[in-house]
Amino acid sequence: MPLVNFAVSGAGTGVAQTVAVSGADHVIRTDAYPAFGGQDAHPSPLAYTLASLSSCNQVTAQVVAKELGITIESVRFDVSADLDPTTMTTGRESADATFQNLVIAAEITTDAPADRFDTLRDEVARRCPVSVLFTRAGVRITNDWTQVKPA
Question: Which of 86, 74, 84 is closest to 111 using CA atoms?
Answer without folding.
Answer: 74
